[in-house]
Amino acid sequence: MDPDHQSGQASETPAFESVPHAMGDDLINYTFPRARLKQCMDDASKTPLLLVSCGSFSPITYLHLRMFEMAADYAKYNSEFEVIGGYLSPVSDSYRKAGLAGAEHRIAMTKIATERCSKWLDVDPWEASQKEYQPTAIVLDHFEHEINVVQQGIATRDEERKPVRIVLLAGADLIQTMSTPGVWSQGDLNHILGKYGVFIVERTGTDIDDALATLTPWRHNIRVIPQLIQNDVSSTKIRLFLKREMSVRYLVPAPVINVSQAWVLVTLRTVS
After folding, report:
1. Nearest to 8 by CA among 246, 237, 238
2. Residue 126 DSSP code
3. What is the reported pTM?
4. Model pLDDT, residue 204
5. How many helices (H) and strands (E) does the chain have?
6. Using an 8 Å Cβ cutoff, are 120 and 87 in contact?
7. Residue 1, pLDDT above cutoff 60
8. Of 31, 112, 203, 207, which has the highest C-beta tally within 10 A?
9. For residues 164 and 50, is the Cβ–Cβ distance under 8 A?
10. What is the end-to-end Cα distance of the chain in Å, rounded?
11. Contact, 100 vs 259, CB < 8 A?
12. Cα(35)–Cα(139) distance, rounded to whole angstroms?
């Protein structure tokens, strides 16, 4: 077997200098990234929507990126929303999840993926920069502050400004944990589902109807997005493939493999 295929690596490794510089600075000198946010709404009659995905991203996969595209299509054709941006928010190292690569590596991977595979998605390193674990509710509050307080929402063509709706984007496994007694506090559920709401992407093997049955107080704020083309790739499966030195091509964005293989993939194999 071709050793490059076996390892999932490109035949030519890009120079180490290709890795974005000063990744460590993201954890120290924080500035909210706004470069890819839409500056003005196309349709002022709609509600501006910001999609936020919180997770480990260890490593980021094509499904993580694809979820944003599915959510954007859903918002465009099935809602009153207009998507004005999308952010990935990697969890901090203090989450201490098995298989969690260092925050610096995960920020690098997600930045490489969004910069080279998307024209509108961005990465916010704020959550990853925190020394203590930040609950999802607090992370959404952070986005609410940056977008609707600091930035004062988004402009319309009439030169008015509208507040932006912040929504959590997640897979169906999240809603399943939310419906499991004792996993989430009632306060966090009220805050996340009541104040912000969630876009849930269907996932193979998850019974969404059963999960939603216990979340009826917030059902109006939970929107389920069907996967018209099924994809059940996960970071856990990718780490297993890497540990076994199997190819992850076309499962993980190519730039993540090519640029990061010198140090990130070694880390993933070590921590798996």
Report:
1. 246
2. H
3. 0.85
4. 74
5. 11, 8
6. no
7. no
8. 112
9. yes
10. 24
11. no
12. 20
d(CA 203, CA 226): 8
Are 29 and 143 contacting, i.e. CB atoms less than 8 angstroms apart?
no
> How much is the pLDDT for 69?
98
What per-residue confidence (pLDDT) applies to 149? 98
Position 178: which residue type? M
| Residue at 34: amino acid letter | R
Continuous segment of H or E residues that includes residue 199: strand 198-201
Peptide bond into 217 cis (omega under 30): no
Ranges assigned E (strand) in the chain? 47-55, 81-90, 121-123, 154-155, 161-162, 165-171, 198-201, 222-225
> How many residues comprise the chain?
272
Query: To 10 degrees, the CA torsion angle through 152, 157, 158, 163?
Result: -30
What DSSP designation does 190 have?
A: I
The C-alpha atoms of residue 165 and residue 148 are separated, in whole angstroms, by 9
Gap between the Cα atoms of 74 and 226, Å rounded: 9
Residue with tokens 């298989």: 99
Per-residue CA distances from 132 to 126, 128, 210, 257 (Å): 12, 9, 33, 29
Report strand pairing: 161-162 vs 154-155.
antiparallel
CA distance 131 to 242: 28
Q: Does residue 194 or residue 246 have the better pLDDT?
A: 194
**Tell me, what DSSP letter sits at residue 18?**
G
- Rounded to an integer, what distance in angstroms lies between the CA atom of residue 257 and that of residue 30? 26
* pLDDT tens digit sequence for 129-163: 999 999 999 999 999 999 999 999 999 999 899 99
pLDDT, one tens digit per residue, over 13-59 is 333 223 333 344 445 588 999 999 999 999 999 999 999 999 999 88
Q: Exposed, middle or buried, 234 (CB in 10 Å: 0-12/13-18/19+)?
A: middle
